[in-house]
Design a protein that fits this description.
Layout (H helix, E strand, L loop, with lengths): L7 E3 L10 E3 L3 H6 L6 E2 L9 H4 L8 E4 L4 H13 L4 E5 L1 H7 L17
Parallel strand pairs: 1-5, 2-3, 2-4, 4-5
Length: 116
């Protein structure tokens, strides 16, 4: 898929209700800080975890996010080509999520969440 053909949106344009967010970053990045309610499947594991992908809602877009937008663009292209989701890349990724002041949670108790 041509990069220009990958559906993309910005963090500021994301819906506030019923947001389905798929985070494709690595486990250490996820643990440091992620969006509340996001689903975590690292990019390299997508092909082997199609059963989990099939559980994502099919009545609305799945927004795919990584650190800055590169890995999520590849994941979006793959998900759409495979027919597994109506996927949309989130431009700027979690860095933009943080800049926009969206909530972050982390897995390390007593440590403020951050985007690696």
């Amino acid at each position: 898929m041509n990069p220009a053909e990958i559906p993309t949106t910005s963090v500021s344009e994301l819906p506030t209700d019923d947001l389905v967010l798929l985070d494709v970053r690595e486990p250490d990045e996820w643990a440091a800080g992620h969006a509340p309610g996001a689903v975590h499947i690292p990019l390299g594991e997508l092909p082997s975890r199609t059963d989990e992908l099939a559980e994502l809602p099919d009545d609305r877009p799945v927004y795919v996010i990584c650190r800055t937008g590169g890995r999520s663009a590849r994941a979006t292209a793959w998900l759409n080509a495979a027919g597994l989701a109506d996927a949309v890349n989130v431009a700027g990724g979690m860095k933009s999520w943080q800049t926009e002041g969206r909530p972050l949670v982390g897995d390390h108790e007593g440590v403020a969440p951050e985007v690696l």
